[in-house]
Amino acid sequence: MTMRRLIPGPSVDESVAVCVPARNEARQLPELIADLREQTGVPGLRVLILDDGSTDGTYQAAKRAAGDDPRITVLRCADEPEPGWTGKAAACARLAAAADAAVLVFVDADVRLAPAAIAAAVNELRAGQAALVSPWPRQLAASPAEHLVQPLLCWSWATTLPVSVADRGTRPSMAVACGQFLVFDAESYRTIGGHTAVSGSVTEDLDIARTLRRKGMRTAVVAAGPLASTRMYHDAAELEAGYTRWLWSAYGGSAAGGLTVGAIAALVYWLPPLAAIAGRGDIRRAGLLGYAAAVAGRLAARALETGAAPHRDDITAALAHPCSVAMYLYLWARSRRALRRGALAWKGRRIAP
Question: Does some domain include residue 46?
Answer without folding.
Answer: yes
